[in-house]
Design brief:
With about 375 residues, the chain is α+β, with helices and mostly antiparallel strands. It contains 7 helices and 17 strands. The longest helix has 15 residues. The chain is globular.
């Protein structure tokens, strides 16, 4: 029973916050099974901010319901300033993206033009954008990425490999498990066929004890596209997430710095609106898209309006909500103080492969207009 589990954990010297038993009770009553991992504190590595980096835990099970039990994480999410926690979920599925069935789903605004100085504060910019979305869509789960696992455009990080998919569970799927028996090498015959079947979906929730009351239940969702340099009606670039009737997922969080051509226009019939990479004489242009990393720990409290262009501001106010005059969220507490991690196994399970890849898909591009051509 739930009180027995609570007592057992305490007898085994696990530190459990007060009030854990009511959160354990629904899982025990539903017949859930629990596993406990003991961490050797002497072997735990810490980053430069004093945050623990735990090795991933991999396990698999069969269930009629596709859900993630997150309510236990509320033990570490007390009400109050600075108590927010970030939960990042990566779902790999054959040919389909996923969304939550019991929470509102919103897509992160994408294809926004940002100011040149944003390149120095990419993490703060993205955190302020994310907080602006949640401020206007409380309790929503944000879709940040939905794309075929074997491709990317642009590619701040390489696409997923067969080895990464096997590490993340492809070897236990009934269709593929005979191919990846114990001590059996990865079959070269499936080097490219397996990645092309999977769609990678990245979902991001940020919550505290008052904003998350149910476990996350997932369901298949229509394909979406967005975050590409694609022109649609009347030569306008696509904005936001657009449902794709053909079932092709091509959505990413992408932000662009544009520099108009400043040289002479010598073409007889110049074609405008075509943007490319920086020309050879530009020394400060990045060689590849920049990446927003460690977003859960990015400084907060920045003014979103200071990072985006006027056209992007108008786009955000039209699709999300009016940009605030001041900071969107109060600054986080001292990072040296301990803060609960609701699902370290979820976050760090992808750190060796999929998380690093997905974070890289939040790309910042520096585009310069080339000289117009005939």
């Amino acid at each position: 029973d739930s009180t027995g589990l609570d007592k057992w954990l305490k007898l085994e010297n696990y530190s459990i916050p007060a009030g854990a038993e009511p959160l354990l009770r629904p899982y025990v009553q539903a017949g859930s099974k629990f596993f406990v991992a003991k961490v050797d504190s002497k072997k735990v590595k810490f980053d430069q901010n004093g945050m623990a980096k735990l090795s991933p835990l991999r396990f698999h099970y069969d269930s009629p319901e596709f859900a993630l039990p997150v309510r236990l994480g509320l033990i570490n999410a007390p009400d109050g300033q600075g108590s927010k926690q970030d939960l990042i979920i990566h779902i790999l599925a054959r040919g389909v993206r996923y969304a939550t069935a019991n929470y509102e789903n919103v897509a992160i605004p994408t294809n926004l033009d940002v100011k040149n100085e944003t390149r120095e504060h990419f993490g703060e910019f993205y955190a302020s954008l994310f907080d602006h979305v949640l401020a206007n869509n409380p309790k929503a789960v944000v879709t940040e990425y939905a794309w075929a696992a074997n491709s990317c455009d642009p590619c701040p990080e390489p696409p997923m490999t067969l080895e990464e998919l096997v590490t993340l569970g492809a070897d236990v799927l009934p269709t593929y498990s005979p191919l990846f028996g114990k001590n059996q090498p990865i079959s070269e015959d499936y080097q490219w066929s397996i990645p092309s079947e999977f769609v990678l979906t990245r979902l991001h929730a940020r919550y505290d004890a008052s904003s998350l009351g149910e476990d996350l239940i997932f369901e298949a969702a229509p394909a979406i596209v967005g975050g590409r340099e694609f022109q649609r009606e009347q030569g306008q670039l696509e904005r936001g997430a657009i449902e794709e009737p053909n079932g092709y997922n091509n959505f990413q969080a992408r932000y662009i710095i544009r520099h108009a051509w400043e040289g002479p226009i010598e073409c007889t019939n110049p074609t405008r609106g075509l943007w490319g990479g920086p020309w050879a004489s530009v020394q400060d242009a990045p060689a590849s898209p920049a990446v927003a990393r460690d977003l859960a720990f990015a400084p907060r409290g920045a003014q979103l309006a200071s990072y985006v262009t006027e056209s992007a501001k108008q786009e955000l106010e039209h699709t999300v909500g009016k940009l605030p005059e001041g900071p969107i969220e109060a600054p986080q507490p001292d990072p040296k103080q301990p803060s609960g991690c609701a699902h370290c196994s979820v976050e760090t399970a992808g750190a060796g492969g999929v998380a690093a890849f997905a974070l890289g898909l939040l790309g910042l591009l520096g585009l310069r207009r080339r000289e117009p051509r005939n």
